[in-house]
Specification:
This protein is 90% helix and 0% strand. By secondary structure, the chain is mainly α.
């Protein structure tokens, strides 16, 4: 495969992966909004899995600079 076709395939794969990430982040945002509407902040803090939430926040923050 020549370089131009290889580059085109990589760009198409990247675009697809970015669309998928966007959908997953929107889904996470909806889940967070649903939690905030259904439960008090005190309950979320008391019963939430801090490590999982911290990891999700760190992942989203890592993508944020790329979107600006």
């Amino acid at each position: 495969m020549n370089d131009a076709l290889k580059k085109q395939a990589e760009v198409a794969r990247l675009a697809s992966d970015l669309r998928t990430a966007k959908i997953e982040l929107l889904s996470a945002q909806c889940a967070a909004d649903r939690l905030r509407l259904q439960y008090s902040m005190a309950d979320i803090i008391s019963f939430g899995e801090r490590q999982a939430l911290t990891g999700a926040i760190a992942s989203a923050a890592g993508i944020c600079p790329m979107a600006s």
